[in-house]
Amino acid sequence: MLLVGAVVAAGTGADASAAELPTVKLTVDGATSSVTTSASTVDELLAEENVATDANDAVSPGLSSRVSNGMKVDVVTRVAVRVKRQDLVEAHLVTADTVGQLVSELSLPTRRTTSNSAFAPGSADAVVWSRTVVQSPRGRRLVGSDRLSDGSVAHVQRVRVVTDSRRENVRARTVRKHTPLLHSGTSKVLQSGRNGRRHVTVRLTRVDGKLVRRTILHKKVLRDTRRHVVGIGTGPNWPALARCESGNNPRAVNPSGFYGLYQFSVSTWQAVGGSGNPIDASRMEQTKRAWILYRRSGSSPWPVCGANL
């Protein structure tokens, strides 16, 4: 009997010790629970309950307050964000956890048409709206249910989209073409370029006044472009050969039966693909036939002047 009494007495003492611990109503972001704690301060209580806070959060009473039975501890976690409207920057502490909650809490704009106004004569009406683009502290775009963190930035942007019709020039493209028909190290315009003209319908998207996208919706060619072709020489010294053979005269005639810049005989001219008389061909055509002959026989068809090649 004495042993049983001792056990009962010990149990009564433990119950009495537990009963002396304070019970606190802890509310974290609206969720309330009753907590029996051995913590002596609010700071210790939150650490005991694994509730992390930082300088942006609201804790009532303060972290250094003594814990007492029946007290209420309220924690509201808040995130430091910035809202940028062009050159204006606002700092906010918000209770929102996600991008969607942030937009709702601060009444930030989502895509919404606000006005229609003519952009320019002959153009369609402009569609204007505001939107919010949220980025993490490292610049990653956040959307919808993505969680916020301290340092997130909400950019409030004004978007203007205009459909515009206009006539515009199309710049001729310059092409450089390597050719053995020109002396190595020289160049020559083989074809003069010409700019084109077209009628286009474009969609112009501006964000805060800055053009960010230009989309061609329709185009009609009014005048074709013509490429500007520049020949880059890779061939032998044709000018020196022509000066030696004919005085650089494409119409030169030798009574012995040789013709043109490079003094072809009619039979040789025809053998390299020429037709008619060499003197009736252009300089470039004569040089083309000379190149074919050069590839076949080297400089030997010009026993004296071939040394200039």
- Report the strand count: 17
Helical fraction equals 10-25%
Radius of gyration from CA coordinates:
44 Å
Contiguous low-pLDDT stretches (5 residues minimum) are 1-16, 115-123
Number of domains: 4
If helices are DSSP runs of H or I spanning 4 or more residues, what is the number of helices? 6
CATH C-level name of the largest domain: Alpha Beta
The CATH topology of the largest domain is what? Ubiquitin-like (UB roll)
Class of secondary structure makeup: alpha+beta
Q: Which assembly state applies to the chains in this document?
A: single chain
Largest sheet: 8 strands, mixed
**Topology as a string of helices (H) and strands (E):** HEEHEEEEHEEEEEEEEEHEEHH
- In angstroms, what separates the terminal alpha carbons? 132 Å
Gross CATH architecture of the largest domain: Roll
- Shape call: rod-shaped
In round numbers, the mean pLDDT is 90
| Amount of beta strand | 35-45%
Explain what this protein looks like in three dimensions.
This protein has 309 residues and is of the alpha+beta class. It has four domains: 20-76, Beta-grasp domain (Ubiquitin-like (UB roll), Roll); 79-160, Ubiquitin-like (UB roll); 167-230, Resuscitation-promoting factor rpfb fold (Single Sheet), CATH 2.20.230; 238-308, Lysozyme. Helix content is 20%, strand content 41%. It contains six helices and 17 strands. The protein has helices spanning 2-19, 42-48, 99-105, 238-246, 266-271, 283-297; strands spanning 23-28, 31-36, 58-60, 72-76, 79-85, 88-94, 112-118, 125-135, 141-142, 152-170, 174-183, 187-191, 196-207, 210-223, 228-235, 253-254, 258-259. Strands 5, 6, 7, 8, 9, 10, 13 and 14 form an eight-stranded mixed beta sheet that branches. A hairpin with a 2-residue loop joins strand 1 (23-28) and strand 2 (31-36).
